[in-house]
Write a structure and sequence with these properties.
Elements (H helix, E strand, L loop, with lengths): L3 E6 L3 H11 L5 E7 L2 H10 L4 E4 L8 H9 L6 E6 L5 H6 L4 E4 L4 H18 L2 H14 L8 E6 L2 E6 L5 E5 L2 E5 L4 E4 L3 H7 L4 E5 L2 E4 L2
Parallel strand pairs: 1-2, 1-3, 3-4, 4-5
Antiparallel strand pairs: 6-7, 8-9, 8-12, 9-10, 11-12
Helix pairs in contact: 2-3
């Protein structure tokens, strides 16, 4: 596997040191930056390619959860792995597509499982099938006249192809849209205006913040 560029974000020096030590066992993982606050991490992520972010949650000025929300909006969002002393934020963390949630202190075996999961996901994302699907979707989504029959949705750091006929309704959530399916709701980074352009005609916009499928 190629070199994995890794960013560490933790306001406490011992936290950074522990992550640095844990990653020494994995030679293909390279630390490209260490940040003690979210604003510094934003700057770094805006200016260089990062594959994985190890992220603390409770930090001064801006929390790791807020930073993770911002990261999830990036076109090529890195994998986010939370590393925190607090277990109660796990549910909210996974809402922002975190791959894993490590509770401090973690042992080598638990950390190894996280590394394996991240490497498996990166290998899948770098594969030709994933890249072709993503490329085709982005190309078609940029064409206003093109009506799609599937939406490529990031869910739990994987790309899911959701048939438009499986969507019952759509509601706006800022720069995101909530896709309401029969048994679940998915959050997709796209505006309602863009959806109105690319979805088939049987999707009716009932409000500026809502659409329904009429069969």
């Amino acid at each position: 596997m190629s070199i994995i560029q890794t960013l560490l974000v933790d306001d406490e020096l011992p936290g950074l040191a522990n992550l640095r030590l844990a990653l020494e066992q994995y030679p293909n993982w390279t630390i490209c930056g260490e940040c003690k606050e979210a604003s510094t991490a934003r700057t770094l992520l805006s200016n260089q390619t990062v594959d994985v972010v190890f992220l603390d949650i409770r930090m001064p000025r801006e929390s790791g959860l807020s930073l993770a929300k911002w990261i999830s909006q990036l076109e090529r969002a890195p994998i986010v792995i939370f590393v925190t002393a607090y277990s109660e934020h796990a549910l909210e963390a996974f809402e922002w597509h975190a791959l894993d949630y490590l509770v401090k202190p973690f042992d080598d075996q638990r950390f190894a499982k996280t590394i394996q999961r991240a490497e498996a996901l990166i290998e899948m994302q770098q594969g030709p099938i994933y890249q072709k699907v993503l490329s085709d979707y982005l190309e078609h989504a940029e064409q206003p006249s093109h009506q799609v029959t599937r939406l490529a949705v990031r869910h739990k750091n994987q790309l899911e192809l959701i048939p438009t006929d499986a969507i019952l309704a759509i509601t706006s959530a800022g720069n995101y849209a909530e896709l309401h399916l029969t048994n679940r709701t998915l959050l997709h980074r796209i505006t309602m205006n863009k959806l109105a352009e690319i979805l088939p005609a049987h999707f009716i916009r009932t409000h500026r913040t809502a659409m329904v499928r009429q069969d």
